[in-house]
Automatic annotation (TrEMBL):
Keywords: ATP-binding, Nucleotide-binding, Transport. Residues 9-23 have a biased composition (Basic and acidic residues). PROSITE patterns: ABC_TRANSPORTER_1, ABC_TRANSPORTER_2. It holds the Pfam family ABC_tran. Residues 1-23 are annotated as: Disordered. This is Oligopeptide/dipeptide ABC transporter, ATP-binding protein, C-terminal domain-containing protein. The lineage of its organism: Archaea, Methanobacteriati, Methanobacteriota, Stenosarchaea group, Halobacteria.
């Protein structure tokens, strides 16, 4: 119990404050991810795959392959901001989001939330921490239990965490207004009054109490869900006792209805089942459920991807309003760059398990520095009938996450692959070599003579030096008149072998010798828009 003594006519506030839980200030780092990895083990039969990992025990594993869904990812999110995460399907966005909540256990790395590494905790400690971190899932239908009513769905997280819950570190006190009272007033406030009255930044829950005298005696008035009894002691002091009058079930029900109203749903629909709602309304239920435990950080896994465009805007506007009202921090995962631009403060671009670029929103959209980001931006349709429609299109397939490329993950599809230093080729000649290498690898042209190949890809003049010799060897392998004679292969097998040999020769001589294959890129650049840092994983900035 907490007591407030000797309050006279007028408004007084008293009571000692105690420090509450430490909170991260707005603009300070709330989530700090460093070297995060998540590998999934895929069984392919007993003898189909043998891997050797000298740093692990046992060092030899049979019949298992590792899918590197998230591979050495680092970033931070500041309190109050929205970090947008964008990338094509299969790049690891959702796995990254689930790893932050420990819905899947990380293989390696740290996930610091308010300075505590979530990767190191488990059991009851992790369960308690999840009340501060919530997730909104992509599919608004499958993420709701069809057998539960809307109100029950929103209340479920509160029941799981026994909320609302009184915080023993919060002090309770009273702010007393006395009307027609000259005697001293002693107010005793129950320790669990913070179930109803929110604590301030200093960890004090202050209950407003009005003490009045009328013709019937002394009365005390307190907010809803509290009750107060007033009596006059023998020495003339007015004694007031304040306690909670509402059960936790009733408090949960009221909070659920309040949240439903805040997300734009009619609280009178409390007892309806999910099938009675549209997709946009179901996603609002998901949003209310996530907010029910008063989290600080919410992972939004493509929350509007399944919704119509008009509904997307409404849901995002609601999310922005709630972010400002509740001081939320978002990791917002999406495919749609227009959605990311609308809601994000900073944007991270992900490709094949790596973060390839992070920058403030305007900096990334107006001054992108990674070829993959540029390709994504060029893929955005332009609603202009006069636009010629010449857009950059990425060629090739995304490599397997079981065996990703060394160095830069994007290099196998990159239109700006860097030439090996040993060749010292002019930009124009290297562009010809690069185009020829892609065409041979993907077999995008019909068989032709050596002269036709030289004219088609090199304008009739091969690169000089060793690079030209490699190109000549490749042409000799695939040209119909190779080695100066009529192309008369013994059969399809020989033709296939020639193409494979030509592809391997080009990759080994050029692609694998590029710095893009030798080192993983990581560069901090100066921003042209805004004052934040600009990270780009591209060796063109070396």
């Amino acid at each position: 119990m907490s007591e407030v003594s000797n309050v006279t006519d007028g408004e007084r506030e008293a009571g000692e404050s105690t420090d509450g839980d430490e909170r991260v200030a707005f603009g300070e780092t709330l989530v700090d991810v460093n070297g995060l990895k998540k590998y999934f083990t895929q069984s392919s039969g007993l003898f189909s795959s043998i891997s050797f990992e000298p740093d692990q025990f046992p060092p030899v594993s049979l019949g298992q392959q590792k899918v590197k869904a998230v591979d050495d990812v680092s970033f931070e999110i500041k309190r109050g901001e929205t970090l947008g995460l964008v990338g094509e399907s299969g790049c690891g966005k959702s796995t990254l989001g689930r790893s932050l909540l420990r819905l899947v256990d990380p293989t390696d790395g740290t996930i610091e939330f308010k300075g505590e590494d979530l990767a190191d905790i488990s059991g009851e400690e992790l369960r308690r921490k999840r009340s501060e971190i919530q997730m909104i899932f992509q599919d608004p239908q499958s993420s709701l239990d069809p057998r539960m009513k809307m109100g029950q769905i929103v209340e479920e997280p509160m029941r799981a965490h026994d909320m609302p819950k009184s915080d023993p570190d919060v002090a309770t006190t009273a702010s007393v207004t006395a009307e027609n009272v000259d005697e001293p007033v002693d107010v005793t406030v129950a320790d669990d009054a913070d179930l109803v009255v929110e604590a301030d930044d200093e960890g004090v829950a202050t209950v407003p109490v009005t003490v009045a005298r009328d013709e019937y005696g002394v009365t005390a008035t307190v907010p809803e869900h509290l009750e107060a009894s007033a009596s006059v002691e023998s020495d003339g002091t007015i004694s007031v006792n304040v306690s909670v009058s509402t059960s936790k079930d009733e408090l949960r029900r009221e909070r659920a209805k309040e949240l439903l109203g805040k997300v734009g749903l009619d609280p009178t629909y409390y007892n309806r089942y999910p099938h009675a709602f549209s997709g946009g309304q179901r996603q609002r239920i998901n949003l209310a459920r996530a907010l029910s435990v008063d989290p600080d950080f919410v992972v939004c896994d493509e929350p509007v991807s399944a919704l119509d465009v008009s509904i997307q805007a409404q849901v995002m506007n609601t999310m922005e309003e709630l972010q400002e009202e509740f001081g939320l921090t978002y990791l917002f995962i999406a495919h749609d760059l227009s959605v990311i631009r609308h809601i994000s403060d900073r944007v991270a671009v992900m490709y094949l398990g790596h973060i390839v670029e992070i920058a403030e929103k305007e900096e990334l959209f107006e001054n992108s520095q990674h070829p993959y980001t540029k390709a994504l931006l060029e893929s955005i349709p332009v609603p202009d009938p006069r636009d010629e429609g010449a857009r950059g299109v990425l060629e090739g397939e995304v490599p397997s996450p079981q065996n990703p490329p060394s160095g830069c993950r994007f290099r196998t599809r990159c239109p700006e692959l860097i030439a090996p230093d040993e060749y010292d080729l002019p930009d124009e000649q290297w562009a010809h070599v690069r185009a020829f290498m892609r065409a041979v690898k993907r077999r995008t042209f019909e068989p032709m003579t050596a002269e036709a190949l030289e004219a088609e890809f090199f304008g009739g003049t091969l690169p000089w030096g060793e690079a030209g010799e490699v190109v000549r060897d490749v042409i000799d392998l695939i040209a119909t008149d190779r080695q100066g004679g009529e192309r008369t292969p013994d059969g399809d097998d020989e033709v296939e072998e020639n193409w494979e040999e030509a592809t391997d020769l080009l990759l080994e001589s050029f692609a694998e010798r590029s710095i893009c294959a030798q080192e993983r890129p990581s560069y901090e650049l100066e921003s042209e828009y805004g004052s934040g840092t600009h990270f780009a994983a591209c060796h063109r900035h070396r």
